[in-house]
Design a protein that fits this description.
Layout (H helix, E strand, L loop, with lengths): L2 H7 L31 E2 L10 E2 L2 H13 L1 E10 L9 E9 L2 E5 L8 H6 L5 E3 L2 H10 L7 E3 H8 L6 H9 L1 E2 L16 H12 L1 H15 L2 H13 L22 H21 L3 H4 L2 H10 L4 H5 L10 H16 L21 H4 L1 H21 L3 H4 L2 H9 L7 H10 L4 H17 L4
Parallel strand pairs: 1-8, 2-5, 3-6, 6-7
Antiparallel strand pairs: 3-4, 4-5
Helix pairs in contact: 1-8, 5-8, 6-8, 10-12, 10-14, 16-18, 16-20, 19-20
Amino acid sequence: MTDARETAADTSLRTTGGAPPDDGGSSETGAPNSESGPEPIPLLEPREGIPPVIADETALAEVIAAFAAGSGPVAVDAERASGYRYGQRAYLVQLRREGAGTALIDPVACPDLSGLGEALSGVEWVLHAATQDLPCLREIGMVPNRLFDTELAGRLAGFPRVGLGAMVEGVLGFVLEKGHSAVDWSTRPLPEPWLRYAALDVELLVDLRDALEKELDRQGKLEWAQQEFDAIASAPPPEPRKDPWRRTSGMHKVRRRRQLAVVRELWETRDGIAQRRDVSPGKVLSDAAIVEAALSLPATVQALAALNGFGHRAGRRQLEQWQAAVDRAKALPDVQLPQPGLQVTGPPPPRAWADKDPAAAARLTAARAAVSALAEQLNMPQENLVTPDTVRRVCWEPPNVVNAESVGAALTGYGARSWQVEQVTPVLVAALVAALPA
């Protein structure tokens, strides 16, 4: 047993998500143990040292064979270059498995990792915040059919902080150095300190998974967690976002349709440039500058240059391309101007309920209070117990006959897992009935 596994085995000393069974803590609420454990130990080097970066097909084939022959779950992580490059592609993939050690793979040099994905088919993948890494892993051919998400496990177990560093420290008693989390991972060659950081990110992931599994089992939540993991693994890729330009920061200031058209034109022009240059859109033009131009509707390049975000650093040619986008928006006929706000299905924003449907507003108030109380009792975030959107939809259009069967069916129809339906249905039925007019 490694030092890490010896520490992980004694989780009663470390676990902050729930009180260990014999420490006097409340077994009903899973309240954190207030006693401080041993001082955490800095984790400075991977157990076998920093492995070489895999950057050719021969070395990749050796890694695939080694990981196929390994045993137990495989820890997986990916590093992106958010804020530096266009999109969310992976620039480094880290793996660790018993019997295979740690591997660092360059997906730029080895862009097709489907062979590795196939070799690990059926193996449980351990990821932290899986939904962040799965899209970029899918792009290079790595798709798990079984997984364990240590961040989500921490949420369900009631940990107050669920970042990887906080979890490793609280559960295993080791301190991870996190200074390189926001660096430009598209850099080549990758500096040794970055590679050390990347290797350490998967060093204890399986140890953490094992400790969290025990804690979830102790709290009676292991089956709940498995349902959540299965839902993530089986979820289809997300559909492209409709009208992504509407997510421009500061959009709440833009009210008129002509101004919205300017935001759209500038956003789409910026996106095309960023994609061609493979840089983050924010490095081409800031959201604040886009909103500023939309509000001002500049008539000339000179007027545009006077706005915040354009200024002296932009060359004449750059200013002309931004002004051309503004002019295109200003020239659009009214019928082609975007409508304010996204056209969404489902209930209106809750702040409008009191005016639109006071009875629905009363139902929502009662339901929110009931769900919040249950989440506190179960020691987990409310949004992990049931999504706020699901609660809103049930309250806006409740079943004609409110009972356990009808409310449970409604929850299932909105995508709730069976454990969520089982837990939430009774309190939601009670809240809906209590909100009925006398």
